[in-house]
Amino acid sequence: MKGKIKYFILLHLIILLYSLSAICSKAAGTKPFMSMEFILYYGAVIILLGIYAICWQQIIKKLPLTTAFSNKAVTVVWGILFGIIFFAEKISIGKIVGAILVIVGVVLYSLADKDDSLNSSSLDNDIDNQ
Amino acid sequence: MNSKVLFYSCFLLIGIFISAVSQVMLKKAALKKYDSPIKEYLNPLVISAYGLFFFTTVLSILAYKGIPLSMGPILEATSYIYVTIFGVKIFGEKINKQKIIALLFIFAGIFVYSLLG
Q1: Which residue of B61, B96, B104, B115 is the best one to mutate when testing the A interface, meaning the one whose CB has the most A CBs within 10 A?
Q2: Which of B50, B61, B65 is facing A42, going by the closest CB pair?
Q3: What is the extent of the structural domain holding A47?
Q4: Are residues A123 and B24 in contact, defined by beta-carbon separation less than 8 angstroms?
Q5: How far apart (Å, rounded) are the C-alpha atoms in residues A97 and B116?
Q6: DSSP A101
Q7: Among A32, A67, B86, B99, which is least packed by CB within 10 angstroms?
């Protein structure tokens, strides 16, 4: 149980890394192409995605794939929070409702794979497994 | 949603589609048998897939020039649509009612977020 909690926390840390890579993508887009700042932010995107891919591969060995994929829906929440914090984005009721629907959809999709040995999520899995 | 957001959304949507294609290529590569572990990684299919994946990071940066950060993960949920289609058409995977309902939720969420948000 303790071990599961450890991997669950690790899972959320790497999902957070994935969300941070999006901040760097957006930040890179605001800088002149191939400027020093652009290269730094783009480099950070590649490094973060690389770390994410390597750690994801390890996590899915320890946690059920359905748990890993359903928890990935939290990126929607991070996207909204980081948008507000770092880019002063405004949020509306419509956006929150839309985000909740997407999260419900992703969680339902991941849970639908639970009893399906030939699940389609294995497609997602492979990019991280390489 | 204004026309600028719509225009830049297309870069991300194309990127997500390409990313799904690269996943199919990696899956195909993973199903093959190779003589050595190095060949598992250094073969045209895997290298092309990673090339495509790299290209999608460029598309993401382009997209984020015109879309809010919060919209990224929402649009990324379209990957489940491609994964389902490729899974069924290419790998003969099964689709069940729950997955269809889940996809409808994702569609509805993207619609509500983008057009009513």
Answers
A1: B61
A2: B61
A3: 2-129
A4: yes
A5: 9
A6: H
A7: A32
Residue A59: CB atoms within 10 A of its CB come to 23
ipTM, two decimals, is: 0.90
Full-model pTM: 0.87
Q: How many Å lie between the alpha carbon of B68 and the closest alpha carbon of chain A?
A: 7
Evaluated on CA atoms A73, A79, A85, A86, the torsion sign reads: positive
The single-letter code of the amino acid at B77 is A
pLDDT tens profile A84-130:
999 999 999 999 999 999 999 999 999 987 755 444 444 544 444 43
Q: Where are the domains of chain B?
A: 3-116
Task: Provide the residue type at A83 as one letter.
Answer: G
Q: What is the DSSP letter of A89?
A: -
Instruction: Give ∠ CA A72-A37-A13 in degrees, rounded to 5.
Output: 20
Looking at the 3D structure of chain A, how many domains does it have? 1
* A102, B110 Cβ separation under 8 angstroms: yes
